[in-house]
Design goal:
The complex is a heterodimer of chains A (579) and B (287).
Chain A (H helix, E strand, L loop, with lengths): L4 E10 L3 H15 L2 E7 L6 E11 L11 E6 L2 H7 L3 E10 L13 E5 L1 H7 L6 H13 L3 H12 L4 H22 L17 E4 H11 L4 E4 L6 H10 L6 E4 L3 H13 L4 E5 L1 H6 L1 H10 L3 E7 L16 H6 L8 E3 L4 H18 L2 E7 H4 L2 E4 L17 H6 L29 E3 L13 H13 L2 H10 L1 E4 L6 E6 L3 H11 L5 E6 L1 E3 L3 H10 L2 E6 L5 H9 L6 E5 L8 H9 L1
Parallel strand pairs in A: 1-4, 4-5, 5-6, 8-9, 8-10, 10-11, 11-13, 12-13, 17-18, 17-20, 20-21
Antiparallel strand pairs in A: 1-3, 2-3, 2-14, 7-14, 12-19, 16-18
Chain B lengths: L19 H14 L7 E5 L7 H4 L3 E4 L5 H11 L4 E7 H7 L1 H10 L4 E6 L2 E2 L5 E2 L23 H7 L4 E6 L3 H13 L4 E6 L11 H7 L1 E2 L11 H10 L4 E7 L5 H4 L17 H9 L4
Parallel strand pairs in B: 1-2, 1-3, 3-4, 4-8, 7-8, 9-10
Antiparallel strand pairs in B: 5-6, 7-10
């Protein structure tokens, strides 16, 4: 936490408008020029329980993680105080609804400010509007000029008429004025941000995945609703049809994944999106994509497992399933985007790789990245390219003898050009049985061996290329201690690195591609290191296991596990490294 | 104009006398009769003896997983509605492991034809009870006779919303051809359940048995296939041992009612998004 930053959180029962309160502030702050990260903590139920929304904002640098500490808490109920008071810094402010007698074990270290949030809302004749009362109270306490909120209220409710706009402004003012009058001395004006020339983006990983898929040329999404992946379905449904694309809510994840395979077979870039339980149901289809050499993109937004596990909490425990799941052996690609915006770029990458290598590609996101938002300047559209891989042309087929096309030709690269239904003389039967070059079922020994080798040979060029983009390293050459993570843990590890400082001789490896594994890029760092701290968001140390399998050095592995549903904090990583 | 030879591929490996030969032949003849070209047809099959049909049919094919022909076939049609898509499999494949997909395919009304070669037995795995095995049928997995009620695919299809439901018999080639042709011309999901005897593992439901018991509703005077309740009644009265076009209704197919429906196949839509449209998508997130 630097002086150019601040943190704020609102909490209450689910169904009380916690998310909408958080969204209002997130939007206002982004528009004002703050870089923010917004984190949603929620439970698998519709009404009740405890939910909260935290924002960490900075005036001068991008924020990739919501921070370990908290300076201001808006509590709609006592549970919110009980659940979050340990996070509060000395001198923090708690704005709580005056409808309950608030207490905190933090005693005088924090300030309790009772505000009649519910009463004001009730007096205005709309109980849900207490979120705007809370926004007003927060606005004063943070020293943010109300005009910024008025602008948001106009934008959000303007279409619904002046009456609603005025009601919201009125609610906002009541909260603002009450705090000003009663707790004016506790105001802590936040550092001032400058409005950016170009408005910034505020996006979640799931939104980046939907947008990335759309720009990557995906035109069919078949999926089954599941937390924390459903928002991908929502966004794509709202946008893909504008470009001739189709979205189908399937009866289950088996059908969803197999529909995507059928559509890819017919020539449309297609995908499915899911979380752990759905991924398990797709294991059979993964092999079907593999042996029939039909491209496929699966997005797995990981959550706490096993089984139904922790449906609304984060974890990175599907790694082994992504790498090794499904019976038999087929080549595959497993990519883990390392930030919210990287979800966008890796979807472009995933579709190109799936078609270039004719294999299933699994994109491993997680709840932390998928359902939370951050603001950043822009996305780079020049990085959007579409490579359909090797496809036979109609002219080539016309030149062939009738029926001579070999869909599973034993080529040097292992990649055999595809044909699509509708192409004359390009007929083949895609097969889940072992097959010979034209696609007829076989069981003979030399052809079986040749086809297995061919399929695995396909990834040989990627095995080399992945060393370029499949892992990021920062830190000194020959660092004594190497921190290793994959996917979303990039944010906390990078921040831990800052706190540890360069002098401690620590390096940071963040893996973006897990299969094929970027061996040549990773090995030198592990060789030189004395200690490899693996930041593994699971119980069994799956990333550490993968490092041992691909590189070795099991004696250097020092695994930091976390599997309680919450993301790693920076301080957990720092204190583990310091030992 | 394509010929029978264009719809043949390699030699089928079924047991001599297997009902599936007739299904393959009928399908080939209908495709020729309808003037279809093999590249515009996709035959998607499941696993089992009947699943081999896609390998021996001269169109594009996908020999998929056990029970998964329907999701695959629907995916193909979603991608390219201009193709003629046939899903095919057996009773174990479609009504056992794949029955969940079957019910939803009926509701969804994707414009495909589903041909089930129903022999009331698992053939490729050498003779276990299937979901349509008759009660009391002794098989390797029901030594004392099947205790469960047989699944009723025709009624299940109708109550699940299938817009075309028919039943044919491998021993009546001409009627089967007519039924398959009508099914393929039908806009929407069409089920053709075919009694296709297994000559090796089912000694109960033989050609003779079917010939003796089948009631041909196509020839029944006054039978109206648009009358849903009469169809249900007659199917029940014949204990499902009937043939003919049993039920049909006109209703929009998936590619017509889906949000963002297009005139031509999804595969024909451009992948390029103009810089202005791309900027518009991104601008949704600007604050």
């Amino acid at each position: 936490m630097t002086t150019n930053e601040f943190t704020w959180k609102v909490g209450g029962a689910q169904g009380e408008g916690i998310d909408s309160t958080g969204e209002i502030l997130a939007t206002v702050l982004t528009r004002m020029g703050y870089y923010i990260f917004a984190y949603r903590h929620f439970m698998s139920l519709v009404k009740g329980g405890h939910t909260n929304y935290k924002i960490r904002a900075s005036t001068d640098r991008e924020v990739k993680y919501h921070g370990d500490t908290l300076e201001m808490l808006v509590a709609f109920d006592q549970t919110t105080i009980d659940e979050n008071e340990d996070e509060l810094v000395e001198g923090a402010v708690i704005i709580h609804d005056a409808k309950f007698q608030a207490s905190t074990k933090r005693g005088g270290a924090v300030h309790l400010c009772a505000v009649p949030l519910s009463q004001f809302a009730k007096d205005l004749g709309n109980s849900i509007i207490k979120n705007m009362v809370a926004a007003g109270a927060s606005s004063y306490m943070l020293g943010i000029d109300p005009s910024n909120f008025y602008e948001q209220i106009e934008a959000q409710f303007g279409k619904k008429g002046a009456e609603l706009v005025n009601l919201n402004k009125n609610a906002f003012d009541q909260g603002y004025n009450y705090v000003k009058e009663h707790y004016g001395n506790l105001q802590k004006p936040v550092p001032v941000a400058s409005k950016p020339e170009k408005a910034r983006l505020l996006m979640s990983g799931n939104e980046c995945i939907g947008l990335g898929a759309t720009l990557a040329g995906c035109r069919i999404l078949a999926a089954y609703p599941i937390t924390p992946a459903t928002e991908i379905l929502y966004w794509v449904l709202a946008n893909l049809p504008k470009f001739g694309g189709k979205v189908l809510q399937a009866e289950d994840e088996i059908a969803a994944c197999i529909m995507a395979i059928g559509a890819n077979f017919a020539g449309v870039r297609s995908m499915t999106s899911t979380s752990g339980p759905g991924l398990s149901l797709m294991m059979e289809a993964l092999g079907m994509s593999g042996i029939s050499e039909t491209p496929l993109v699966i997005v797995d937004v990981q959550r706490g497992g096993p089984s139904t596990g922790l449906p609304t909490k984060t974890e990175q425990s599907d790694l082994y399933e992504a790498l090794y799941g499904s019976h038999g052996e087929t080549p595959r690609i497993v990519i883990a985007p390392t930030s919210i915006e990287d979800c966008f770029y890796q979807m472009i990458n995933a579709f190109n790789l799936a078609e270039r290598y004719q294999v299933p590609v699994i994109v491993l996101s997680d709840l932390l990245m998928g359902m939370n938002k951050r603001s950043f300047p822009d996305l780079d559209l020049s990085r959007v390219t579409i490579d359909r891989g090797e496809v036979v042309t109609q002219a080539q087929l016309d030149e062939m003898e009738k029926g001579a096309f070999k869909r599973y030709a034993l080529t040097e690269s292992g990649i055999s050009p595809r044909s699509f239904p509708g192409m004359k003389n390009g007929r083949y039967c895609a097969l889940t049985n072992e097959h010979e070059e034209t696609g007829l079922e076989i069981e003979d020994v030399p052809m079986r061996e040749a086809q297995m080798k061919k399929r695995f040979r396909k990834l040989s060029t990627l095995e080399r290329d992945v060393n370029e983009w499949g892992v990021d390293y920062s830190g000194p050459d020959g660092a004594e201690t190497i921190l290793v993570g994959f996917g979303s843990t990039e944010a906390q590890i990078a921040e831990a690195m800052e706190q540890l400082g360069g002098a401690t001789n620590v390096g940071h490896l963040q893996l973006r591609c897990l299969m094929p594994f970027p061996k040549d890029a990773v090995r030198p760092h592990l060789e030189k290191a004395q200690r490899v701290v693996v930041v593994d968001n699971n119980y069994t140390g799956q990333l550490a296991g993968l490092l041992c399998k691909e590189i070795g050095f099991h004696d250097k592995m020092d695994v930091l596990h976390k599997y309680n549903g919450n993301p790693f904090t920076v301080s957990e990583i720092v204190s583990h490294v310091k030992g | 104009m394509a010929t029978m030879a264009d719809f043949r591929y390699d030699k089928a490996t079924w047991c001599p006398g297997c009902g599936d030969f007739s299904v393959l032949a009928a399908l080939q003849q209908v495709c020729v009769r309808m003037g279809l070209e093999p590249e515009d047809v996709v035959c998607v099959s499941g696993i089992g003896c009947s699943g081999k049909i896609s390998q021996h049919f001269g169109s594009y094919g996908f020999h998929t997983l056990h029970g998964r022909s329907l999701p695959t076939a629907q995916g193909v049609k979603m991608a390219n509605q201009d193709l003629t898509v046939i899903a095919a499999g057996g009773d174990g494949d479609g009504y056992g492991i794949g029955v969940g997909h079957f019910i939803h395919a009926c509701r969804r009304n994707v414009d495909i034809t589903y041909i089930v070669m129903d022999n009331h037995i698992y053939g490729l795995t050498t003779g276990q009870a299937s979901p349509t095995s008759k009660k009391g049928h002794k098989t390797k997995t029901s030594p004392a006779g099947v205790g469960e009620e047989p699944l009723k695919p025709l009624e299940l299809a109708i109550v699940s919303g299938a817009s075309f439901v028919a039943q044919a018999f491998s021993g009546e080639l001409k009627q089967m051809q007519n039924i398959i042709e009508a099914a393929m011309k039908h806009k929407g999901f069409s089920l053709v359940n075919v009694f296709s005897p297994c000559v090796t593992f089912n000694r109960v439901n033989t050609y003779e048995w079917f010939k003796e018991h089948i009631v041909n509703l196509d020839e029944e005077e006054g039978y109206d296939p648009t009358d849903k309740y009469n169809a249900m009644k007659r199917i029940a009265e014949t204990e499902s041992v009937c043939t003919g076009i049993l039920y049909r209704e006109e209703r929009p197919a998936w590619h017509e009612y889906v949000l963002g429906a297009t005139e031509t196949g999804t595969v024909k839509q451009t992948l390029d998004i103009t810089p202005a449209d791309a900027a518009g998508l991104i601008d949704q997130f600007r604050r």
